[in-house]
Amino acid sequence: MDEEADDDHFPDAKLYTRSLCMTCKGKNYSCYYCNGDGKNYIEASDKTIARWIVGVGEERRSDIMRCIKELDNEK
Description:
By secondary structure, the protein is of the alpha+beta class. The chain has two helices and two strands. It has two domains: 14-44, no CATH class; 46-75.
């Protein structure tokens, strides 16, 4: 995890997730909005990020939470 990744360095930082293209409906077309697999990238919601964190292994989740606490204490 990048120790320098904070609001001062990345004020517009966003996380993205891969999603089914709503134009192609995942039928392996390649429209202007997606790749050849019918997928595109959209901004990840807080709930999606939370689900991802819950889904990683316990050790990695603990490391992520430790980093969050450390960065929060630096503010």
